[in-house]
UniProtKB/TrEMBL annotation:
Keyword entries, A-Z: DNA-binding, Membrane, Transcription, Transcription regulation, Transmembrane, Transmembrane helix
Name under which the protein is recorded: Helix-turn-helix domain-containing protein
Domain HTH araC/xylS-type span(s) in chain numbering: 631-732
Record carries keyword 4Fe-4S: no
Transmembrane stretches, start-end: 305-330
GO molecular function: DNA-binding transcription factor activity; sequence-specific DNA binding
InterPro entries cross-referenced by the UniProt entry: Homeodomain-like_sf, HTH_AraC, HTH_AraC-typ_CS
Highest taxon, organism lineage: Bacteria
Length: 735
């Protein structure tokens, strides 16, 4: 039932789209469909025939390639394995194992060992490196030379590797460590280091419960092995080689991961969780401990087959192109009609603007207004409000830009404006229509805020705005305009020429202020001014609010209600910024709400609220934000000092953090109570003590690591701050 309803909705939608097309567009679509459908069917049939034929051929080739790959790689890997097993049983290698001390002086014997580990002429191109570690005697021999295991520059990495190999029960095995990298200093390999990266052939001898006696690592040149697989990869076949269930070589990581995740045991076609479908052939060589997986992505066959479908679409595209050319020719011929249509649309907009302008002039009576409703398709509302906006920096600026302002309004904003906006007597006029006064209030609040922000962000215009009372007939629009103009040139709008402001027309016989939504607008502006720490603007808005209460003759409980509401809104600002009220006010000020509601003089109320509420809040917010900035600066400085081990100057630190050195120095002095130099010295001492207590580095080596040019300078610095020389400090704490 649901599917039928969905299908019916889709058909109705298609029909609706087709019905909305003009006659020439319908003809274009029908001609295109006439050619498109047969070509697509032909392309799909050809695609299926090609897939069946090509899949059969590929399966035959896959089996042949699998045998060939097994033969090539097994010859190489098995030969390498047998050679080194035989080598470890020879006299030369046995002599090497017996050396309890590093055989620096045994040049001729070590030369034989070197030739032995490099392999013969056949194997030399497959071997990129070798490592022999005499674990029992503690020395290492590789193609970079001889050195003590204690002096290994990547000792921690080497220790971790040996500990891992202790857990492996086999003594001869393959190991893939592509995730590890060769130990280097820049682009040069560390000479006294053990390279455990890449594809390794491992031979080791256990020393009973004592662990490994010696271990050989033969690093295979994977580039040569990958080059062998390139020819198959270019033909669309992927190769993965496993040694003792570990990946030794792969040309396609995705196939390998899918193979392992699905635990494939035999050859065949598999659809994996990733959505890919692979045809896989598996060959196992138990004697060598190798497994060869060769496969291809069946989607590649489909990809080639899609060329038939693509050809169909090319033909469709050519035909569509011809139709477009024909249609463009027709459009060129019909251009005068299109221009006429645009002219009519522009005229319609201008007529509506003229209609609104005539309303503002008061030249239309109720009957003519009613007739224009029908003529222009305008739906009247029961309630209206008007917004008038002028530029504070000069009328010419607004006059030059009003066309751009109107054209740049979003469709959503335009939909909220009744009829159309107009530029009238150096002012932008916006009408709002609604079902009742409350809805008109809310819509006016939203429209004013969005238009003000739009003009500030897009045109950098500082505006003064005036808003009329609600009115209910369009022939009252002239009166509303006068109200806007009176509010617009209110003193409050002229005081601050650098920020946008709003003034509301006050009719002394209007409804009580409780029904006036614009109390909320001024309240929001006041809250924003306090939160932005603009004390002068906040004072002006506060005085305007108190003035409005007096002008409305609001007294007694009603006055206390509005004052309490305003004060409550102010007192919520610190909490929003993460500041407790107890941090802002003294305990004597806790009854502030009661005291202020008992003050009836306007100037005294403004002064009291400003001094006892607004000023403390702004002062605390400013302190909070400055403290946050300074605390963050301190954290950044301490991190730079730690990363550089104290070897960074104040100027360098200031450049990194984009501050002036003097400002940075003042912040550190205020936050820590010490100078930048003292902080740098503290970090150097911390690093020096750590290395003295946790490493075997000499005092000279530690001095060099801390970038002292002279070891005596380091000793003098350390003794001046600690009271001991570095050597005495180490001796004292190792006692």
């Amino acid at each position: 039932m649901g599917i039928k309803m969905k299908g019916k909705r889709n058909r109705n939608m298609v029909k609706k789209i087709l019905d909305s097309l003009t006659y020439e567009k319908k003809m274009f679509v029908k001609l295109l469909m006439l050619v498109t459908i047969p070509l697509i069917i032909m392309g799909i049939v050809s695609c299926n025939i090609y897939i069946r034929s090509e899949s059969g051929k590929r399966n035959l080739v896959l089996s042949a390639y699998s045998d060939e790959i097994v033969r090539e790689y097994e010859d190489i890997l098995s030969t390498l394995k047998e050679y080194y097993i035989d080598a470890t049983n020879g006299d030369t290698f046995k002599w090497l194992v017996r050396q309890n001390e590093i055989p620096y002086s045994q040049y001729s014997n070590m030369k034989q060992v070197q030739r032995l580990l490099k392999g013969n002429y056949f194997m030399e191109k497959y071997i990129s490196n070798y490592e022999f570690i005499n674990v029992t005697s503690g020395w290492v021999f590789n193609d970079y030379g001889l050195f003590s295991y204690e002096e290994t520059e990547n000792r921690e990495e080497a220790d971790d590797f040996l500990n891992e190999q202790k857990k492996t029960q086999r003594s001869v095995y393959w190991l893939n460590r592509e995730d590890k990298s060769t130990p280097k200093a820049g682009n040069i390999r560390l000479s006294s280091s053990v390279d455990t990266s890449g594809l390794l052939f491992v031979l080791k001898k256990e020393n009973g419960a004592n662990g490994i006696s010696w271990i050989i690592l033969i690093q295979i040149d994977e580039r040569v092995l990958r080059t062998m697989a390139d020819s198959y990869d270019k033909l669309g076949y992927d190769v993965t080689i496993f040694g003792n269930d570990k990946v030794l070589l792969e040309t396609n990581r995705e196939m390998t991961e899918n193979y392992l995740s699905e635990r494939v045991k035999s050859s065949g076609t598999y659809r994996f969780d990733s959505g890919k479908k692979y045809n896989i052939n598996i060959r196992k060589q138990d004697t060598a401990g190798l497994t060869f997986v060769v496969g291809y992505d069946t989607s590649k066959v489909k990809k080639d087959a899609w060329s038939f479908v693509l050809a169909s679409f090319v033909v469709i595209a050519v035909f569509a192109f011809l139709l477009v050319i024909i249609r463009l020719t027709a459009m060129a011929l019909s251009k005068p009609l299109l221009m006429l249509q645009k002219f009519v649309d522009d005229q319609n907009t201008q007529i509506k603007e003229l209609f609104v302008s005539n309303l503002l002039k008061g030249e239309l009576n109720a009957e003519r207004i009613e007739s224009n409703y029908k003529k222009y398709g305008i739906t009247p509302y029961p309630a209206y409000r008007m917004i008038a906006m002028a530029c504070k920096r000069g009328d010419n600026e607004l006059k030059e830009k009003y066309g751009l302002i109107f054209n740049g309004l979003s469709e959503e904003l335009k939909s909220r404006i009744f009829i159309t906006p107009v530029y009238y007597e150096d002012k932008l006029i916006f009408l709002v229509g609604a079902e009742n006064n409350m809805e008109a209030d809310n819509k006016t609040v939203t429209l004013y805020k969005e238009i003000k922000d739009y003009m500030e962000d897009c045109f950098a215009l500082v505006t003064a705005s005036g808003i009329s009372q609600a009115f209910h007939k369009l022939h009252h629009i002239r009166r509303a305009y006068c109200e806007c103009a009176q509010a617009l040139y209110n003193k409050a709008n002229k005081e601050d020429m650098e920020s946008s402001s709003l003034a509301l027309f006050d009719d002394y016989l209007a409804m009580n202020s409780g029904d006036n939504v614009y109390d909320m607008i001024i309240e929001n502006e006041l809250i924003h001014a306090i939160d932005s720490c603009k004390e002068e603007e906040a004072g002006r808005l506060l005085e305007l609010t108190i003035d409005r209460l007096e002008m409305k003759s609001v007294v007694g409980i009603e006055r206390n209600f509005y004052l309490t509401r305003l004060l409550t809104a102010m007192l919520s600002i610190p909490g929003s910024a993460g500041v407790a009220l107890s941090d802002v006010f003294d305990s004597e000020q806790y009854n502030i709400l009661n005291r202020i509601t008992q003050i009836y003089g306007k100037q005294e109320a403004v002064k009291t609220i400003g001094q006892e509420i607004i000023c403390p809040i702004i002062r605390k917010l400013s302190e909070k934000r400055q403290e946050g900035e300074k605390s963050e600066i301190l954290k950044q400085v301490m991190k730079l000092l730690k990363d550089s081990k104290g070897n960074i100057t104040l100027n360098e630190c200031a450049d990194r953090l984009c501050y002036h050195p003097n400002y940075l120095s003042k912040v550190l002095k205020r936050e820590k109570g010490i100078t930048y130099t003292d902080m740098a010295n503290e970090e150097k001492l911390k690093q020096a003590k750590y290395m003295l207590l946790t490493t075997e580095h000499s005092v000279a080596e530690i001095s060099e690591k801390l970038q002292y040019n002279n070891v005596q300078n380091f000793i003098r610095f350390f003794k001046n701050h600690v009271g001991f020389t570095p050597a005495a400090f180490r001796k004292e704490h190792h006692r």
